[in-house]
Every structure is written in structure tokens, then in C-alpha cells.
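hi! just following up on the protien thing from before. the input was this:
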Amino acid sequence: MDFLLHIAAGAGVGFAIGLTGVGGGSLMTPLLLFFGYPAPVAIGTDLLYAALTKSGGAVAQHRAGNVDWKIVGLLAAGSIPISILLQFTLLGTGFQESPGFESLLTTSLGIMLIITASMLLLRDKMRKSAGANPNALVQFIHKHRSATTWIMGMLLGACVTLSSVGAGAFAAAILLSLYTRHSAVSIVGTDIAHAVPLTFIAGIGYLLAGYVDVVLLVSLLIGSLPAIHLGSRVSASVPDKLLQRVLILFLLSLGVYYSAFSGAH
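and the predicted 3d structure came back as:
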């Protein structure tokens, strides 16, 4: 029964991913916590789930010419070393045995859910303000875009490794503000291409530490892969603004809950 329930859960999350385009980490990790999985198992399993579900999208985006590999390289140069360093610090030094380990992960998850909801709300305004009449700070950031992208990669590496959230709406919103001359499709493709190696490497760290439930992962994939395709096909017929508002409210509520009550998990 648990296996069938997890297939159904994977289908639900997959359908939501296809419908909204929001990364699975924002939805899957809270769902696994609701099912009673410990935070590191929920995050570790979701990281590999993300790597596997996004890999097909990354290949498709590359074939369509929607991936800027220079940006991917700059992001990865920051994100992957930080992810490996965090994995060693959290999972290779005995810290995972301390009471603060799960609290750190759930608090990080809550913060990232709040940031993701905020980014979804402000994404269009951020892009417009960055492209029109930029202030001195925005001009400075654009002048040093490569360094800023690398620093952003480090931030993403930490966020994704600690919470499995970040390589989606959060990353795309910042990239849209940094690279205002790139199309939204190109930014999304670039974000997906970077997310695959980051989530895979972070997920492998959790797997080696014993925090990935392989049976759970397989059941989620069985349910979600066809559902993602279905969700993307019907997304055009769903009111976009209403869907986005519901999603923002949902993520914000989850974020506040996990930020405020992480000590209870």
C-alpha cells in the first residue's frame, strides 16, 4: 500500500511540476516530511529525484538551443564545490548525529520555501527593474556579471544541498534579473541544465551517507514521469495567475511552518 501511495504522491507532484513549472523540491520534500520521513531522507531522496526528472528536460533544452553553457559553467564552478564541502561538513564529520542536524535542514527548507514564494511573486518586477533605468548597484552587478553568477552558484549550492530547494524559481528569477537580454526560455533551459549535476552530486552525498530511500525514489519516479508530461500538456488551459497565487500562498504557508516549528521535527 505504501508503494502505491508513493506512486500516487509522485504523480500528484509531477502533475503540479508540469502544470506550474515550479521545481519538485518545493513540493516533494514537504510532502515526504508529511509522510513521516526524516528530513535528511526526504531531502536526499528528493535531490536524486530532481536530478533524474530534470535530466530529460536538460537534454531537450540543449537540443532546442536554450542552454547557455557559459552560464552553466559559472554557476557550477560555485555550486558544486560548496555542495561537496557542505556534504563533508554535515555528513562526514558526525554532525548528522547531533540534535541540531534535522533542525538545520528543516529551517533551511522553510527559509527557501519563503524565498521561492517571494521570487514567484516578484520575478517579473525584478526583471523589469533590472532592465530599465538600473541603479548604481544593478549597474555594478551587471558590470561584474561573471563574478556575480559564480557567487550566485555558491549560494545555490548551499541552498540546494541543505534543503533540496533553490534550483528552480529562485535560481531562474535571479538569472532573469542578471541576464536581461536572454529570453525567459533560455534562462529556464540554462537553470535546468545546471540543476542536473548539482542535484545529482548533492544527492549522491546523501546516498553514500545512507539518507536515500531507493524504493521510495523508484515509486516517486514511476508516478511522476508520465504525470509531468500530462501536466505540461494541460497547463495552457489553466488560468495562469490564479494557479500562481494559489501556489505562492501554499509555499509561503509551508515556509513559515518549517521556519517557525523546525525544532519540532
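The chain has eleven helices and no strands.
Residues 2-264 form one domain.
cheers
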